[in-house]
Every structure is written in structure tokens, then in C-alpha cells.
Design a protein that fits this description.
By secondary structure, the chain is mainly α. The protein folds into 2 domains: about 1-80, no CATH class; about 90-405, ABC transporter involved in vitamin B12 uptake, BtuC. It has helices at about 1-35, 55-75, 80-85, 85-115, 120-145, 155-170, 175-195, 200-220, 225, 250-255, 265-290, 290-300, 305-310, 315-340, 350-360, 365-385, 390-405, 430-440, and strands at about 35-40, 45-50, 230-235, 340. The strands form 2 sheets. It has a two-stranded antiparallel sheet. The two termini are about 50 Å apart.
């Protein structure tokens, strides 16, 4: 027996070495220019080329050794991520989703209380909830309807500019401009939906990408309306039932007998975006159980079968684009009132790609997954802020790892649209008749 097993060791070792060498070659191709060569400003203000090939060699060596060890362990012990997770946990994980959702909600509510004295963490929390809301909106289009949208930032921009222009030119409050911004963004979604009614897959993605760029270029060049590259400043801030967050005697702090603090506005804005995100989540869950929600999921699974069932795919696609765009418009209006200044630079393709990554990594169709992915991605960005040169490298590697070992997303389980609330017993006679029909 020992003589039979010895010949099989060498091919496995050679295969592992070959795999590690290929990974090292790919690493060298990536790092040679990205890390090995950089330009810096010299003493005479001219750019000089600096080389760091020693760092490149170290990264390539680490890649080779790591891939070799991984390949050897995988071939000898059948190593996989799934085996590292206990089977008992995999079976009970779906039942823990409601409790995880409740815990996530409780943490979101008490964040301003815990970090009241830390403006940095409050701003980060607002950013996370804003992207969570954007993820909820895009999840309708991508996760439920299965329509790949690479221009979702266009609706975000329409909502922001709609609020800024209406609030400045007509003097309307935030609470009146908010639904108007959502309606205008939904109208933009319908405009996008008509040209893509007959498109699917890559062609749909290209058209939506072009739509997002069209909106950005319009905002950049229509200077009389949008201010062009200078943007719009002095956007009105929201108030608490007419009470402004300032130090005047008619302000929020003076009315409630509190000492004035700029943190009051930040906490108020956090709860506003949290309420909007929860409203988006609730509406999405309700829509999934309605006929339109089931039509979206049928369209996602197979458009031809969806047509064969008599579902009007035209209205189904248009409603998906309109609903997703409306929630994106709400988030855009909040972004404008929070920043007080907007410009086309805030609505580039990278924003669409980031929101799409949140939806895909979290688990398409999973609301909890979107919230978890937004928290993890934005939180990881902040943790690696000190390593600015390698932050995107680590972020990209993490995304690749998740897509390889968790292709359905971080939270793959979600509540089904239709389910039985009680177990239903089927008579033995019905089962026997079914077996008879199948064997006939």
C-alpha cells in the first residue's frame, strides 16, 4: 500500500506548485506597475520615478507561498469554507434571521445615544444608513426583478438636484420637497425603462450605464439650471416641525430648554434617514407579497416563462424601475439637505458600482443582507483608512473571496413571498393517486 500511494503524491505536489506559480505570475502582473513604480515630486517640482521592486518581490513571494499551502491543504484534506462551518449552524441559520434583523434594528436605533459625543461615528452611521437605503432601492430592480442596472446613481442625482432646485426657487420645506423629488426620480426611472423593454443581460447593463452618464453630463453642462461643475450651494436644511436647529430663541434647543449643540441636527438627520430606510424596507417587503412583487420575481427567473404565464412584462419592468428610482430619489434629497452642497462629482459611476456591490455581496433579494453588506463595506473602508495605498487592494480581494465562497451573498436566506403559516397534512389517498398518475 505505501508503494501505491507514493506515485500519487508527486503529481499533486506538481499541480500545487504549478497553481502557485500561476498565481505568482498574476500577482507580478498586477503589482509590477501598481506597487513597483510610482511618481513623486522631486526637489525641482518635477516628477521623478521611484521604484519599489523589493516590495513587489515580497508580495509575489507571499502570493506563491500562500497559494501553494492552500493548494496542498485542499488536495490532501479537501479543504473548503463550507466544511469549516458546523452543520448544526448551517441548518439553524435561516431561523436566526428574524433575531438578527431585530438585533440590527436595535443597534441602529441606539447608535446616536452611544456615540452622541463623537461626531465622526455619527457621520459614518448616517453614511451607512444612506447607502443601505440606496441598496434597498436597487435591490428592487436587481434583486427582485433581475434587471442589471449600472446607472442607479442617475436617480440619486435627480432626487438631489430636484430637492435643491425646488427648495431654493420656491421656498418649500424639506418635507414637501421630499415626495416631489421621489416623484421626479420615479419619472426618470420610467424614461429609462422604455428604451430597455426589449433588452436583457449585458445590453441592458450598457444602456443603464449610458443613462447614468447622460444624467451626469446634463448636470455638468446645463449651467443655467444646475450650476454646472460649480454645483448648488446654500441648500436649505430640514427643521423639526418648523423649529430650526440654531442658537436663536425660536430654535430647537431653546424651545425644549436644552443647551445649544450642533449635534442636535446630526442626530435628527440620522433618525430621518433611518426612518426613510425603514419605510423603504417595509414597502419593499409588502410589495414582494403582492402580485406585482411575485411578477418581479417571475421576471427575474425567466422572462419567456413570465410572458407565457400572461404577465405583462412591460408594466412589470416599468414599475420595478419606477419604484427603485423613487427610493433613490428620496435618498438623493436627503443627501442634498445633509450636505448643503451638491455637484456632479458626487454622482459618478463609482457610486452606482458601489451600491450594486452592496446588493450583490449582501445577497440579491435579501433586505438584511443589504444592511449587513453596507455596514461591512463602509466599516471596512474606515478601518483601513490608515493603509490608504492598500485599502482598495484588500477591499477587492475580499470581494473576490466572498464571490468565490459565498456566491449567493453574505445573507443568502430570505423570507419567501408565499408560504404556509401552518403545516398541512396530506392524506395518504392523495399521495397514492399522485404516484399512480406519475407512473401511468
Amino acid at each position: 500500500m505505501p508503494h501505491d500511494s507514493e506515485p500519487s503524491i508527486a503529481p499533486r505536489t506538481l499541480a500545487a506548485v504549478k497553481e502557485a506559480a500561476i498565481a505568482a505570475a498574476v500577482a507580478f502582473g498586477l503589482f509590477a506597475l501598481m506597487v513597483g513604480i510610482r511618481t513623486e515630486q522631486g526637489p525641482t517640482s518635477a516628477l521623478i520615478i521611484m521604484t519599489r521592486f523589493g516590495t513587489v518581490a515580497g508580495l509575489v513571494a507571499i502570493t506563491f507561498v500562500g497559494r501553494l499551502v492552500f493548494a496542498l491543504l485542499r488536495s490532501q484534506a479537501n479543504l473548503s469554507i463550507e466544511r469549516l462551518v458546523p452543520s448544526s449552524f448551517r441548518t439553524t441559520a435561516p431561523a436566526l434571521v428574524p433575531y438578527a434583523t431585530a438585533a440590527f434594528l436595535i443597534v441602529a436605533v441606539i447608535v446616536p445615544i452611544v456615540f452622541y459625543g463623537n461626531r465622526y461615528w455619527l457621520d459614518l452611521a448616517i453614511l451607512i444608513v444612506t447607502y443601505t437605503m440606496l441598496g434597498f432601492g436597487l435591490n428592487i430592480v436587481v434583486g427582485l426583478a433581475g434587471l442589471l442596472d449600472l446607472g442607479y446613481v442617475a436617480f440619486y442625482a435627480v432626487g438631489a438636484y430636484s430637492y435643491a432646485l425646488i427648495a431654493q426657487n420656491f421656498g418649500l420645506s424639506f418635507w414637501i420637497c421630499l415626495p416631489l423629488a421621489g416623484i421626479l426620480a420615479a419619472f426618470a426611472g420610467i424614461l429609462l425603462g422604455f428604451p430597455v423593454l426589449r433588452l436583457r443581460g449585458d445590453y441592458l447593463a450598457i444602456v443603464t450605464l449610458g443613462f447614468g452618464e447622460i444624467i451626469r453630463l446634463i448636470l455638468l453642462n446645463w449651467q443655467d439650471l444646475t450650476g454646472g461643475p460649480n454645483g448648488i450651494s446654500g441648500i436649505p436644511r430640514p427643521s423639526f416641525f418648523g423649529l430650526p436647529f440654531n442658537s436663536s430663541e425660536h430654535g430647537f434647543a431653546a424651545t425644549f430648554g436644552l443647551s445649544y449643540s450642533a449635534t442636535h441636527r446630526t442626530v435628527f438627520l440620522y433618525y430621518v434617514i433611518l426612518a426613510l430606510a425603514l419605510l423603504t424596507n417595509w414597502v419593499t417587503l409588502r410589495l414582494r407579497r403582492l402580485p406585482i412583487g411575485r411578477a418581479w420575481e417571475a421576471l427575474r427567473e425567466d422572462e419567456i416563462a413570465c410572458r407565457a404565464l400572461g404577465i405583462n412584462t412591460t408594466t412589470t419592468k416599468l414599475t420595478a424601475f419606477a419604484m427603485g428610482a423613487m427610493f433613490g430619489g428620496f435618498a438623493g434629497a436627503f443627501f442634498a439637505t445633509r450636505q448643503g452642497f451638491i455637484s456632479p462629482e458626487s454622482f459618478t459611476f463609482s457610486e452606482s458600482a458601489f451600491v450594486l456591490a452592496i446588493v450583490v455581496l449582501g445577497g440579491m433579494g435579501s433586505q438584511l443582507g443589504v444592511a449587513v453588506a453596507a455596514t461591512v463595506m463602509l466599516g471596512a473602508f474606515e478601518l483601513f483608512r490608515e493603509f490608504d495605498q492598500y485599502r482598495m487592494l484588500v477591499f477587492g480581494a475580499a470581494m473576490v473571496a466572498v464571490m468565490i465562497y459565498r456566491p449567493r451573498g453574505l445573507v443568502a436566506t430570505r423570507t419567501p413571498s408565499v408560504f404556509l403559516r401552518k403545516r398541512k397534512d396530506i392524506a395518504a389517498r392523495v399521495l397514492s393517486e399522485a404516484r399512480t398518475e406519475n407512473t401511468a
